[in-house]
Amino acid sequence: RDADIVYTDVWVSMGFEDEAADRIKTLEPYQVSEKLMALAKPDAKFMHCLPAYREKEVTGGVIDGPQSIVYDEAENRLHAQKAAMAVLMKK
Fold this sequence. Notes:
Elements: E1 5-8, H1 20-27, H2 34-37, E2 45-48, H3 60-63, H4 70-90
Parallel strand pairs: 1-2
């Protein structure tokens, strides 16, 4: 309740496809939905590292909604990775 940020991640990572059914069944109650976001602060933001599986980890209404900052997050990750590469290439 009253969260500033609601964050989730992919439920089934690459290499764990054989566990998909069990993981999805276990994690379904934790889907980020409009109902869950309503429990957060009114100005709360939704984050996900992408790619997200719509209607599994998060509803389309949340990921495409005004509280979602997933695309800003993805863009910032790009710049952070470029900066890390620049530092490593100087060594």
